[in-house]
Amino acid sequence: MPARLYLEDLHIGDRFSSQATTLDAAQIKAFATQFDPQPFHLDEAAAEQSFFGGLAASGWHTAALTMRLLVESVPLHGGLIGAGSEITWPQPTRPGDQLRVESEVLEIVPSRSRPDRGLVTCQSLTLNQNGDVVQRSVAKLLAFRRPQAS
Amino acid sequence: MPARLYLEDLHIGDRFSSQATTLDAAQIKAFATQFDPQPFHLDEAAAEQSFFGGLAASGWHTAALTMRLLVESVPLHGGLIGAGSEITWPQPTRPGDQLRVESEVLEIVPSRSRPDRGLVTCQSLTLNQNGDVVQRSVAKLLAFRRPQAS
Fold this sequence. Notes:
Chain A is an alpha+beta fold. Chain A contains 4 helices and 5 strands.
């Protein structure tokens, strides 16, 4: 377990790499059944005839798996609390893909009104086993300052 | 089942309202266990001591539930295929919340290179039973033109 980082421990350009995780067709269909029940996420034959040309994971499944990899790889004190995120999915996630996440700190903005915290802009690229980017997200994460000795 | 809409059926300002769905603490913890295993999404006592001051759903859980409500309420021909989305979570989603989604077409841009399609910018507000916005998303959705008789 890496040390937990406070706002002042972070620097622009800091990078974090996750472990890898693999997803299969059954997981893609289970997620889609619950949250994104569309034929191209549920059924191989229907997916062949669709825009995706084959079974593809819901983008929200890719986003959720990315979050798990971020929780394991970006050790902010107090946890990963996002105010928001901009996401694009340049390529679909496919059955059998092995995903990992590379994150980089883009910006650090201390709060003016709350001196104990700030917002960290973090880009996370979710890559498959071929190095293709299946998701790019740019998130605003809350980071806390190290408490002062009183 | 509403009629399926093509690109030329859509207009700026068009609105779509979803049904409501309720989520409970068990669902919040099950999603978090799989995708966002942080104490404030998993354990009431730990959540009380956290930034959230009580159990809160992962933002990605709110996003995934929003997707299901969108699939049921925004009837685009060919399905809901997002190129990307900007998301903010102004308020946490809590156990027992009843969520619904109000969507509005903000922009329609026909593709220059692909005359059979375009991108539709759609804002979706996810509201709880008190009318609080728990998620605002602005997504770019693919929409297809009605096929011409040949």
